[in-house]
Specification:
Elements (H helix, E strand, L loop, with lengths): L4 H29 L5 H12 L5 E9 L4 E10 L10 E2 L4 H14 L25 H5 L17 H9 L15 H15 L3 H10 L22 E4 L2 E5 L16 E2 L1 H12 L6 H7 L4 E4 L2 E3 L4 E3 L7 E8 L2 E8 L4 E7 L1 E2 L6 H12 L40 H19 L3 H34 L1
Parallel strand pairs: 4-13
Antiparallel strand pairs: 1-2, 1-12, 3-6, 4-5, 7-8, 8-9, 9-10, 10-11, 11-12
Helix pairs in contact: 1-11, 1-12, 2-10, 3-6, 3-7, 5-6, 11-12
């Protein structure tokens, strides 16, 4: 097959540009993988952050690097140590995000709608609460609030009736009050909509699909042999968290037990769109109720600094098993998971205190440019954690025509030049690559012309 001069130049230019762009992409990915902070520095900072606190637990910090989550730090921290990332903790109100996820899965399966009245799923709802919707329960705007039931043997019907018979704090949807009881009603709604028990639904739809083998509920047989912290609340030691009391008095809003490793893995999968849709993730990370001081409530989640460089979304947990904090920063895609074995309510919340210190030490310094491939254009088939692999579905491209080849070549050139502005070394390398391309092209053309003139002379 004979090549024209134009074809020859195109081939040389494409090969050179492709090599250069791949080289720069790998260099950029390597830099991005460590763009937060080296582990050695983090270790020293965490030691400093936990000094003079009562934090005794585990810290896991990870970051989305494009193809997988890179675990930046994972170790015991604090006053006593000895708790690794496979130790069981009671995650407290972080459990609300698991309950929220279950509700979202039911919504995606068409088994409920967020604007449904609770009367569709619960019996004997008093007239003053018949306008309460699932959305209001998720966003703490239902007006329903009752204290924790001291009767830990209470049945489902007894607890639901106790909550529904309480006096409303305000007209549903008109204000905000943090409500554990609202999430107990959500647990009952999950059972009604799914036809199975709350624990079974979360196991079937969340724990098992994500291989969360050390996540579940206290007194589950499969958790008995897993090392667990002794939860301490207000100075009282309640023993191993896998043996804590568990029942309808706290169902839906707390009491899930898990390890820091599996908490991290769940939220990595959730953030990556492997559990619920991105539309539902946006509802978690949204302004459903403005709480003031740049704080908001999304569906189930706490949101701080909405649409700002310092935006975070997540939840904290306080229960008999200790104190947990899970927060994600969309700007640099860093996920913090801190678990602690003790706290004093209203006085000492060690996990939250240490998280606040770390986020001050390592603020987001700049927002990334618009990603070359957006989340909508790729399918994340799995996330990775330590030894677990992550693969994205291959993106197939049809054979290129001459016009599309020219377009692709031009796009590559623009991308390379754009990258060069951020780094003088890259700029110099781009100039060298372009110069080499021009020289090679000239030599090829001159060689072809020399052969042609010799042929004519003969």
């Amino acid at each position: 097959m004979k090549f024209s001069r134009l074809n020859m130049m195109l081939v040389i230019l494409l090969v050179s540009l492709n090599f250069s762009s791949n080289f720069l992409a790998s260099e950029t990915e390597s830099e991005d993988a460590n763009k937060f902070v080296p582990e050695q520095t983090l270790s020293a900072s965490i030691d400093k952050a936990t000094t003079n606190t009562n934090f005794n637990g585990t810290v896991v910090i990870s970051q989305n690097t494009g193809n997988s989550y890179n675990v930046l730090y994972e170790d015991a921290a604090g006053t006593k140590g000895g708790y690794d990332a496979d130790t069981l903790y009671d995650i407290g109100s972080v459990s609300k995000l698991y309950t929220t996820t279950a509700i979202m899965l039911l919504e995606e399966d068409g088994l409920l709608n967020y604007d449904d009245s609770i009367t569709k799923y619960l019996d004997n709802v008093p007239s003053d609460k018949q306008d309460v919707t699932i959305k209001m329960l998720l966003t703490h705007t239902s007006g329903i609030y009752v204290d924790e039931n001291e009767d830990h043997e209470v049945t489902k019907d007894q607890e639901v009736n106790r909550i529904l018979s309480s006096e409303l704090n305000f007209e549903p949807g008109s204000n905000y009050i943090y409500s554990n009881a609202g999430f107990t009603l959500l647990a009952a709604i999950i059972e009604s909509a799914s036809g199975v028990e709350f624990e079974q639904y979360l196991t079937d739809k969340i724990f098992e699909p994500l291989n969360l083998e050390k996540t579940g509920f206290p007194n589950s047989d499969y958790l008995h042999d897993i090392p667990a912290v002794n939860g301490t609340l207000d100075g009282v030691n309640y023993g191993p968290v896998n043996n804590l009391d568990y029942g309808w008095y706290s169902k839906g809003y707390t009491d899930i037990v898990s390890t820091p490793r599996e908490i991290t893995y769940f939220f990595q999968a959730l953030i990556s769109g492997n559990v619920v849709s991105y539309d539902n993730l946006e509802l978690m990370n949204s302004n459903q109720m403005d709480l003031g001081n740049d704080r908001y409530r999304g569906y189930g989640a706490e949101v701080k600094g909405l649409d700002s460089l310092s935006q975070t979304v997540g939840h904290a947990g306080v229960w008999y098993g200790g104190n947990t904090a899970v927060y994600y920063r969309p700007a640099d895609e860093v996920l913090f998971v801190l678990t602690c074995d003790e706290l004093v309510v209203g006085v000492d919340l060690p996990a939250i205190e240490v998280y606040n210190t770390l986020s001050t030490m390592y603020p987001v310094t700049s927002l990334d440019e618009e990603p070359i491939i957006s989340r909508e254009e790729i399918n994340v088939s799995d996330t990775s954690y330590k030894g677990q692999t992550n693969s994205r579905n291959d993106i197939t491209v049809d054979p290129l025509s001459k016009e599309s080849t020219l377009s692709a070549m031009f796009d590559q050139l623009i991308n390379l030049i754009t990258l060069s502005f951020s780094d003088p070394t890259r700029a110099l390398m781009i100039i060298c690559v372009i110069a080499i391309i021009i020289i090679i092209s000239i030599l090829v053309i001159r060689r072809k012309r020399w052969h042609y003139l010799n042929k004519v002379k003969k």
